[in-house]
């Protein structure tokens, strides 16, 4: 009896040691059996096959990335994912960015080189195995016949509010903004009256901003494409913003130089000015891009969050933007003071005054949007989303400033509107000018009538000023239109000379005040 009792005690002690040894091993999960591996026969079609049936030399189902699986407590089969989790396949290959590491405690570590974020999974959330690729239609960079380490992981693929804003709402807003800029570009390209130097400035600004928005979309959706170089995309994107500001500074310099000059007639044509400004924009942009790229690869160490470049490279692009903002403010201030000193404008000066109004509005729009877009590069979530809002609003604001002008609306109605159109902007009784002021289009019409009327040309100076009945002639209307005078009533007792004097007195009081750019245009 004593011998039997000692034998039973020895057996139970050995069983406890075996169970304790098994419990001390960390748990892992293998997708297939102990002698099987995964075989991918088509995109998304994987099955477990015995190593003997596959017939490939060097396959070891008990080894995964150099680790012997016998040192772990192995569970077999795919993991059971929880609610809102899906089984996601992940490859580990030398040509892939994804990295899978099995730690000593049985935890699977997963991270990507581009995002630098690590995720840890327990054995209930993953399974690992060796995979053989038997087809050449894989979306990954694994060719047919290659052997890859593989894992199934349970990931929560439900989109958060930030993902919806980042990948849905923001791209749609960028598309709307691009549409506004493209419409502005097309209208200023099609109408010949708008293809002057100011129109070319607007065309250039719209082209730069549209290119910047296109690259922004590539930056959002091109991260998963191995053919897209994100560093080059970001550098060209910031260079386009810089090009828009360089063009705006050229526009401000042109308006400032003409308004400050004593005569609007110069020996330099608009084509020559456009050539000089183009050389300035291209040369400055290329020099700054070269400096930024050199500093990025030689001095800069770490990029900022959500970007491939650092603050030093961003400073090369946006410090000149700040300098250009100060220069444009100087142009605006001097032009405002000069316009306040002038009492009467001829046709040319009225045209450049309208160009100044357009420049001041574009300056306000681009300055406010660029300010918040630059603040969005800081590691502050609120500023990042505010920058998104102003990025979306920039295109529609440029569209409103460029299109809602008297001259553009007149030309749009002249070329695109029909008589029986249901569009609200095409309505009216045929007279586009219905305000209490005479536009330059009326001046051109009256001038054509005077030139084509031989009878009126042969009249004397006294007859041209007024006929025997005292009614005003076309020349008198032409002279009044140059001073923006319009008769309110034909039966009034006020004479034309009295009206001109009253108008000059009123204008002298109004122009004494500073013009902040947001004034109603009185010429085309």
Q: Which SSEs are present, and which pair or pack?
A:
Blueprint: H1 2-24, E1 27-30, E2 36-42, E3 45-50, H2 51-54, E4 63-64, E5 67-68, E6 73-76, E7 85-92, E8 98-102, E9 108-112, E10 118-121, E11 126-133, E12 147-156, H3 161-190, H4 197-221, H5 230-260, H6 270-298, H7 311-341, H8 347-375, H9 381-403, H10 406-416, H11 440-452, H12 454-457, H13 461-465, H14 474-482, H15 496-510
Parallel strand pairs: 1-6, 2-11
Antiparallel strand pairs: 2-3, 4-5, 7-12, 8-9, 9-10, 11-12
Helix pairs in contact: 3-4, 3-9, 4-5, 5-6, 5-7, 5-8, 6-7, 7-8, 8-9, 11-14
Provide an overview of this structure.
- The chain is α+β, with helices and mostly antiparallel strands and 524 residues long.
- It has three domains: 133 residues, Beta Complex (Methuselah ectodomain, domain 2), CATH 2.170.180; 217 residues, Rhodopsin 7-helix transmembrane proteins (Rhopdopsin 7-helix transmembrane proteins, Up-down Bundle); 76 residues, no CATH class.
- Helix content is 54%, strand content 12%.
- The protein is built from 15 helices and twelve strands.
- The chain has a five-stranded mixed β-sheet with strand order 3-2-11-12-7. It has a three-stranded antiparallel β-sheet with strand order 8-9-10, with no helix packed on it. A two-stranded parallel sheet has the order 1-6.
- A hairpin with a 2-residue loop joins strand 4 and strand 5.
- Helix 8 runs antiparallel to helix 9.
- The termini are far apart.
């Amino acid at each position: 009896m004593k011998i039997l009792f000692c034998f039973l005690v020895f057996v139970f002690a050995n069983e406890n040691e075996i169970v304790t040894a098994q419990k001390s091993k960390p748990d892992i999960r293998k997708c297939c059996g102990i002698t099987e591996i995964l075989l991918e026969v088509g995109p998304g079609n994987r099955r477990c096959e015995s190593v003997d049936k596959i017939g490939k030399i060097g396959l070891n189902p008990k080894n995964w990335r150099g680790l012997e699986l016998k040192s772990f407590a192995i569970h077999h089969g795919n993991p059971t994912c929880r609610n809102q989790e899906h089984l996601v396949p992940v490859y580990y290959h030398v040509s892939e960015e994804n990295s899978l590491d099995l730690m000593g405690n049985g935890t699977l570590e997963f991270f990507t080189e581009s995002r630098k974020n690590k995720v840890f999974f327990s054995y209930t959330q993953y399974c690992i195995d060796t995979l053989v690729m038997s087809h050449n239609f894989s979306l990954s960079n694994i060719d047919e016949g290659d052997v890859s380490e593989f894992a199934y992981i349970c990931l929560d693929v439900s989109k958060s509010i930030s993902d919806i804003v980042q990948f849905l709402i923001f791209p749609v807003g960028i598309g709307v903004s691009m549409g506004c800029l493209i419409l502005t570009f097309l209208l200023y390209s099609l109408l010949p009256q708008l293809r002057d130097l100011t129109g070319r400035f607007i065309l250039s600004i719209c082209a730069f901003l549209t290119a910047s928005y296109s690259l922004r979309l590539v930056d959002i959706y091109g991260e998963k494409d191995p053919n897209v170089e994100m560093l080059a995309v970001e550098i060209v994107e910031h260079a386009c913003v810089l090009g828009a500001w360089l063009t705006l500074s050229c526009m401000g310099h042109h308006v400032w130089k003409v308004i400050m000059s004593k005569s609007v007639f110069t020996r330099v044509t608009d084509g020559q000015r456009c050539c000089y400004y183009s050389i300035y924009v291209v040369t400055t942009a290329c020099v700054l891009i070269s400096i930024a790229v050199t500093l990025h690869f030689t001095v800069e160490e770490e990029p900022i969050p959500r970007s491939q470049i650092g603050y030093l490279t961003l400073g090369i692009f946006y410090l000149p933007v700040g300098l250009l903002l100060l220069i444009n403010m100087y142009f605006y201030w001097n032009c405002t003071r000069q316009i306040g000193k002038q009492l009467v404008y001829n046709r040319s000066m009225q045209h450049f005054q309208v160009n100044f109004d357009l420049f001041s509005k574009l300056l306000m729009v681009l300055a406010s949007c660029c300010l918040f877009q630059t603040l969005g590069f800081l590691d502050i979530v609120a500023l990042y989303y505010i920058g998104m809002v102003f990025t979306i609003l920039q295109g529609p604001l440029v569209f409103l400033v460029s299109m809602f002008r008297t001259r553009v609306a007149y030309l749009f109605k002249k070329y695109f509107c029909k008589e029986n159109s249901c569009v609200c902007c095409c309505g009216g009784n045929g007279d586009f000018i219905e305000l209490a002021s005479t536009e330059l289009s009326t001046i051109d019409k009256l001038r054509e009538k005077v030139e084509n009327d031989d009878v009126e040309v042969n009249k004397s100076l006294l007859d041209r000023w007024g006929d025997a009945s005292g009614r005003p002639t076309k020349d008198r209307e032409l002279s009044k239109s140059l001073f923006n005078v319009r008769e309110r009533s034909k039966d009034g007792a006020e004479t034309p000379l009295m009206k001109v004097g009253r108008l000059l007195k009123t204008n002298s009081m109004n122009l004494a005040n500073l013009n902040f750019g947001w004034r109603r245009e009185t010429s085309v």
